[in-house]
User: Fold Signal transduction histidine-protein kinase ArlS from Lactobacillus kitasatonis.
Amino acid sequence: MKMMIKNKRDRAKETKHSSLVVRWVSIVALTITVSFVLFSVVVYQIVSKQSMNQQEETSNNVVVTLERTLSSIPDELEISNVIPSLSPSTRRILNGGPAISSKDTRNNAFSDNLISLISNPDINVAVYNRHNEVVFANGDTTPKFSPFKGNRRVVQVKRNNKTTLVTYQKVYSAVNNKLTGYVVVSNEMTYYNHLMSNLLHWMLIISLIAIIFFVAISYVLVVNVVRPIKTMSKVAKEVNADPNSEARIKPLNRDDELAELASSINQMLDRMQSYIEQQKQFVGDVSHELRTPVAVIEGHLNMLERWGKDDPQILDESIKASLQEADRMKHLIQEMLDLTRAEQIDVQYPYEIATVNEVVRRVVSDLAMVHPDFKIQLDEDDLPDDTEIQMYHGHLEQLLVILIDNGIKYSTDRKQINVSAGVTKKEVSIMVQDFGEGISPEDQKKIFNRFYRVDKARTREKGGNGLGLSIAQKLVDSYKGEISVESVEGQGSQFKMVFPVLSKKRAAELRKIEVEKHKNDVPDGILK
Ligand code: ADP
Assistant:
């Protein structure tokens, strides 16, 4: 059941993954479409408004001119008084023909202004009397009258995708201020309608071309991004299935974040596999190291079981030898623990401060007491008393013990160890020098490796597991320091550790953080 659920989930993930291209392209398409639609609407509105203003002005000119002309008539408007004032073609109108058409403007008596206005083929004019009867009309169609409030009313009439602008105007006599009739001017706005439909047409075409163009470009771009991601995912899956797989992402031939990611993933895989390898090696080494003491103890116990327990001397020797091996195992286990812990220092001791002189002095005097046959000299003249480094003091002690202990272990005739410390602007250095057997240049490269001993049998005699210097190396690395060795075979060795010096300002900050951290600690007494 669990498997089924898992499979389903995996499948769901894969579908999602494959839709990445579709999703990105749709988002681009949608964004472009929305932007173009918005842009088009705004442009369309602006052009329409501008152009409509012009048309309204044209209609307005006609209306104002007609109204001014007709306002000179004192009585209600009728054919007999309107025609003479606007046109001499009275007879034709009385015969039922069209009042006037743009064709015969040359023969009428219109003022120049009126002629030019009404000769516009878009403009149709009609004059109505107070009883809504047409008394004059010009143009091919007569604009209809409909009652309205106020002096003027402007209406846009839409028919067959064409807009006509109709203006209704009341006419008052200038003589007695009485309402004499109405003027209706309709403007067919051919230019406006043509412009707007053309604009819409072109906008649609350009938007369509732009959408197709951008979708194609974004498709190419997205596929270009998704392809390397797919390769990475394939490699990740392969390594997931077989952690030892040699699969790596091929160089992407590009210079961007994806290439960086690919190379980081490759590095990560290399490192991960080398860790796995190291881990295997470590487990192998550890079992190998433990096998000897276990075999020795087992041998002694077998011997005791078979015949040795009755011989007090053998019994005593075997118990002593077994205890010694047990002690060695305990020591080895402790060292292995130290080695593991040395890798997690930045998490466990992030804000600790060690005062170098204090620690060095303490360790030197302690070891001098343990090894009275050795002359352990301390030279710290070049180190001001308050020199501090960012390190847990216990680790500095451990480092010094490892190095001084080695100096003692691998000494020959001259039983002397020199410990010295100094500081420059940026670095604190601590040196441990001995005059013992020394280390060959070949071995100098290997002594920091786990379980490496120059002379296995002899070192074992001296109680060494080959872990001391690897613990030292790990500790120093964790504190961003460096450890190195200079040695001449038969003359002695000098180990040097260098750490970044801790500035007074940073030390104050660390102390503050430490205080803040402990503020929230619950005192033991309260809980008890
Ligand atoms: P061990 O616990 O065996 O001393 P280390 O890791 O401390 O392990 O040292 C690794 C090897 O390096 C030692 O076995 C020894 O052969 C060599 N070595 C370390 N320190 C010194 C020294 N001061 N003089 C000579 N040889 C040394």
